[in-house]
Amino acid sequence: xxxxxxxxxxxxxxxxxxxxxxxxxxxxxxxxxxxxxxxxxxxxxxxxxxxxxxxxxxxxxxxxxxxxxxxxxxxxxxxxxxxxxxxxxxxxxxxxxxxxxxxxxxxxxxxxxxxxxxxxxxxxxxxxxxxxxxxxxxxxxxxxxxxxxxxxxxxxxxxxxxxxxxxxxxxxxxxxxxxxxxxxxxxxxxxxxxxxxxxxxxxxxxxxxxxxxxxxxxxxxxxxxxxxxxxxxxxx
Amino acid sequence: xxxxxxxxxxxxxxxxxxxxxxxxxxxxxxxxxxxxxxxxxxxxxxxxxxxxxxxxxxxxxxxxxxxxxxxxxxxxxxxxxxxxxxxxxxxxxxxxxxxxxxxxxxxxxxxxxxxxxxx
Lengths: 236, 119
What we know:
heterodimer, A: alpha/beta, Spore Coat Polysaccharide Biosynthesis Protein SpsA, Chain A, seven-stranded mixed β-sheet, 9 helices, 7 strands, globular, B: mainly alpha, elongated
């Protein structure tokens, strides 16, 4: 328990125009997971994301322009390196993730069984029902990734993850720009980091729609698969 | 002098002249002008000497020698755009790092300011 109270935990929330949801997300975190320091990375938002974040009591980094989810999350990892955090948790700003589940993500890290823990919606049957096309995409990604890293992965695109110091260090140097989740897991695996999934709950988005339109989802598939193939060909 | 030669010499000569002028006025950096200069020089040489043009065309199996000029110009354009894509990729990576560092710096400054106010 002494060790637990000494570890420094950073919760990274990448946010692009999330002023409507952010207060709720930060309140959820402060009441259900007070041990973590909350850092909102405002990715060049046009709305009041930064002031809402500060108003709710979170720290906030405002990027001068939109870098995309990858660049924003990586900013959080760089902050974690600079301030010597032991654990960094990626948490969505749209209210999908459940703050009380963070404790579950940290267990494998604390036992030293994993370098990154991914929160999965699909490990146990939940209420989340993806559309037909999304289901296909999810199953392709999970098959490709599972075969590369040799352990079954059910929720490869999950943005709810916890990283230890080694992974924080790695991500602060190398992190993909857009649609980074799948590719970053391949890169971690290539750097011999251990990946583990745990089951988490996932809420419906409290505000706004997914940024993924049909055209973008095709780009998403092609980009991620290409990036994965290229990562596999790169020299270690 | 046939009309093809006049056009080709004028074209590649003007290209070289414009590139030189841009470098001289500091509007084009030397490192981004090398491929342009190479294209200009090769095209000018091939345009000036009909014998050389015909010789290279025969070697490469090109039936109508002046179309070799198009091929050479096309290959150079491909090289130049590919070079630019690589340059842009490097710049966008540097740009990302700058933006991240700026965000981190602003946050650190804010922290220091708050601490200063409290004391």
